[in-house]
Amino acid sequence: xxxxxxxxxxxxxxxxxxxxxxxxxxxxxxxxxxxxxxxxxxxxxxxxxxxxxxxxxxxxxxxxxxxxxxxxxxxxxxxxxxxxxxxxxxxxxxxxxxxxxxxxxxxxxxxxxxxxxxxxxxxxxxxxxxxxxxxxxxxxxxxxxxxxxxxxxxxxxxxxxxxxxxxxxxxxxxxxxxxxxxxxxxxxxxxxxxxxxxxxxxxxxxxxxxxxxxxxxxxxxxxxxxxxxxxxxxxxxxxxxxxxxxxxxxxxxxxxxxxxxxxxxxxxxxxxxxxxxxxxxxxxxxxxxxxxxxxxxxxxxxxxxxxxxxxxxxx
Amino acid sequence: xxxxxxxxxxxxxxxxxxxxxxxxxxxxxxxxxxxxxxxxxxxxxxxxxxxxxxxxxxxxxxxxxxxxxxxxxxxxxxxxxxxxxxxxxxxxxxxxxxxxxxxxxxxxxxxxxxxxxxxxxxxxxxxxxxxxxxxxxxxxxxxxxxxxxxxxxxxxxxxxxxxxxxxxxxxxxxxxxxxxxxxxxxxxxxxxxxxxxxxxxxxxxxxxxxxxxxxxxxxxxxxxxxxxxxxxxxxxxxxxxxxxxxxxxxxxxxxxxxxxxxxxxxxxxxxxxxxxxxxxxxxxxxxxxxxxxxxxxxxxxxxxxxxxxxxxxxxxxxxxxxxxxxxxxxxxxxxxxxxxxxxxxxxxxxxxxxxxxxxxxxxxxxxxxxxxxxxxxxxxxxxxxxxxxxxxxxxxxxxxxxxxxxxxxxxxxxxxxxxxxxxxxxxxxxxxxxxxxxxxxxxxxxxxxxxxxxx
Lengths: 315, 455
Description:
The structure holds 2 protein chains of 2 kinds. By secondary structure, chain A is mostly helical.
């Protein structure tokens, strides 16, 4: 709506006869005022809801702040405490483990699904929708469905294992299995979105390349390896960066599915941070955790940006 | 709103004039102002009229829950009797209620009076968010109420007034006992008697090694009904010195945990953690008739009654040292330290009203809590009501000999550490000695961090 208003106005002013310099200057000033007015909701949002909390949390990170009494400056105390907080490192380890399983699994599966669904066959929209449904469902719904499927006694997962003669598993109740299980469920929920990004990337690859490769006798696997994968390397990069960031910020899933259990085995860093801030009255410490996590994400993203030069081809 | 305000008189359309443009600027401005006004309105409605006081009242309950419905009815009755008070309710499910409350306190926007989980009163009081009620309580006859002492700080201050009391006792399924031909538990039961009966009550009908019904629930993340009273029954302590010194790493604790491990493992009369979760979690087992006995607080009556379980209650069994390990939680009304005098007075009137006979009777009938009004608790209407369990006196006796649940300013944090370590041993992964040592040192660290900083 706002866009059509702006373009409508621009075309109108272009159609007008040229006016004097003063007139033009006052118009420019007016235009600027209009621009600020139109941008004001976003600017207000940016200032009040993003920059202000960001600055506040940076300040809190150097204080003890219990939400009730005013923050007290403590310098780097929160950060030195972090260094020796085994629980924090454990949650970071859990998060890394989750990321190592989840990021490649989701990226590879999303690419394979996109390739499989990038075809002109009947009912293809139905399949694409099926993979996209978990993406638009809320985590609470997905968790509920996953929980009942993974119930060690009555869930379909163990029923199937039992049926093919394999030992049944305590998916979410076993400390060793809980993170891989959560990663699996997260892939199921998130793969549809990444698949969609890959589909868009795939459709940008010119059909002629495949035809030429076919003429030259390249197999399907060779076409995937030498045409598709380089062709979507830009998308792959985007998917990797997005997935890694969301993984390091993962919260809802563990909050609703395991609450960090069993016995802390699935406590991810953001859940730990939430506990410190909203359950233990330690908002200063929680803010310090948030900033350390932010720096980690920043470093990892910079590393990814650097590495992309080696493997990402923009056509 | 802002969008629809721009729609008429689109620039570029024929007939678009300067007047239209001016109008458009005004309508945009009006829209923005309106949005801003809506955003601020939540804090600007306190000046309704000078002779009524608006009281914001917070409590935790799932929407539509019988507790929620009853609370709303009681609020209506209260305002009918106190026309000078308007009550504004802020209710949410337990977890949401308390995380929101902390941010509300930070924003200076917390309710004037709220229902606090008994174990959290100290946490909020120690940080200065609660009004000291000592003087107001002094105006009452303390002997008329249960649980006031459990809310008294070591310095003698009182920050919460009892709303309803909870204490674990032994719930048992009377039908299962009859079927197995076992005498119901009584006050002479020891942990050995409990184990012997539980083994007899464990049923593996199809003989696949996995019982369909277990004798007793031992593994529960809700430690009020699990390791806390058990360790105390074996003569152990959790915290001492006005709840500031953790003492859980002891021979007695090890014995208690060993008893629990045997129950889950070799003796096999209690479901392990995985089975408990698979069957819907620790609080579903008794109502689903998957176990014959649990340690349960009064509130466990409600789901058991709803599921038509035939049950009664008995005192907790005595451990090797002759202790029962009775503990109690007194959920309490607390008043916001930031509430003005008028709101605080209105809040106190609500608290007094809720402690009265009619509301207490209604609340007890729900199967939610033991009445804190002694007259109600000892009345025929409560003790001999038709609703199960029949032996309600058992709760009152347990309450009389109960200690608090180790409450202090960092209760959630330090008990979280204890629970995680102890549950790790019960799940079979962690060595008991190491876990108890780790639990003790980490929990002590959390306590020291607060008390060292604030001293």
